[in-house]
Design a protein that fits this description.
homodimer, mainly alpha, Tetracycline Repressor, domain 2, 76% helix, DNA-binding
Chain lengths: 188, 188
DNA sequence: GCTACTGTACCGAACGTTCGGTAAAATTGT
DNA sequence: ACAATTTTACCGAACGTTCGGTACAGTAGC
């Protein structure tokens, strides 16, 4: 079954961890080589495009994972809060309960290429629209639902920064618990 | 009045702009030299400790500015929403209506030293406590006020990331308008 | 024998930092 | 008042190191 102890997918998830923790500039080839256990030559065999192609591969994997989670969320039987709860559960694991930062935020600083910016933008909009779809399906006004989509992504991103900055995952965990209800609350 | 066109404070604010836009690793000495107009050697005259001392100086300036804004907020005559509105007005200028990222978030990625992490943590807690103080003064429960302090910082940080990621300041501006009311809303 | 993969050695460029030195302002001695 | 001296501000060039990336000779598995 497992001919290789370290498949390409394993390497991609190792790269994800590196890039989101250190950013594009901080993740040097030396560190990448060290954490993957691959020499430079091996890295350039798997990713001929170099560092950029590694980020590219990580982003593709992230797009795939995002589409899967959002699709799962929409397939959940139940009301809007139940669906959002499913999303938050999945994302809590992705971010290790707030202990791991978000790649998208990490790629916004430094020498990250403009091509990445486009992918980041697309990914953020994917999540915004997914949340908005859940809310409009539950009968919420279209405009408000879009705002709440933005609010959801915003809260998660902000909670991650707070958790990193305070070196305490508690605020993240609290926010992730409150999000399903907060986003569904009607306009007061 | 202005004997020097470029004072040390000017250089510090230029450094702030560079570090928050490019992060610690992305802000190379070459770029720093270019944007300040000072040669590399001159930079080491003003900041003998090198890049780290530059970040240190920027953080000190940021602490000073934060204490000033939070103090202003507490001196505003009026209810809690009015005070928070003052805070949001000042912060909107600091972040150029969402077009400029936050230094604290930028320093969380990359090779930023642990000494910076402590200062970042202190600064985040300063803001959380300031918001909480406004709310408790207005009669809100202590525990909830602290949570709302976290929520406030979190929303601002998240809104900044969203504005950067979507390359659109609109979500940031909307959130900054809503924050004064959102944070004061009683538990439902 | 052929493809997939890897270790080693190497490259030019850029990194943060230091060196040696210049020009002017401020301070001091008389 | 003025020359001597120190301090301050600045710079170009170079330091050693690390960067991302390449060339090539292998080795393992089919």
């Amino acid at each position: 079954m497992s001919k290789q102890a370290t498949s390409k997918q394993t390497h991609v998830s190792e790269l994800l961890d590196l890039f989101r923790r250190l950013g594009y500039d901080g993740a040097t080839l030396a560190k990448i080589s060290q954490t993957t256990g691959l020499g430079k030559a091996s890295l350039y065999h798997h990713f001929p495009g170099g560092k950029d192609e590694m980020v590219e591969a990580v982003l593709v994997a992230l797009e795939h994972g995002s589409e899967q989670i959002t699709a799962e969320m929409l397939q959940v039987q139940g009301d809007a809060p139940a669906r959002l709860r499913k999303m938050c559960d999945r994302l809590s694991k992705v971010y290790d309960n707030g202990q791991k930062p978000c790649l998208l935020a990490a790629l916004l600083s430094g020498s990250a290429k403009d091509a990445f910016r486009d992918r980041v933008e697309k990914l953020l909009q994917l999540w915004i629209r997914a949340i908005a779809t859940v809310l409009t399906t539950a009968g919420m006004d279209e405009t408000l639902a879009c705002q709440r989509g933005e609010d959801g992504v915003m809260m998660i991103q902000g909670a991650l920064i707070l958790a990193q900055g305070l070196q305490d995952p508690a605020p993240f965990q609290r926010v992730m618990q409150q999000i399903p209800e907060t986003l569904c609350r009607p306009l007061q």
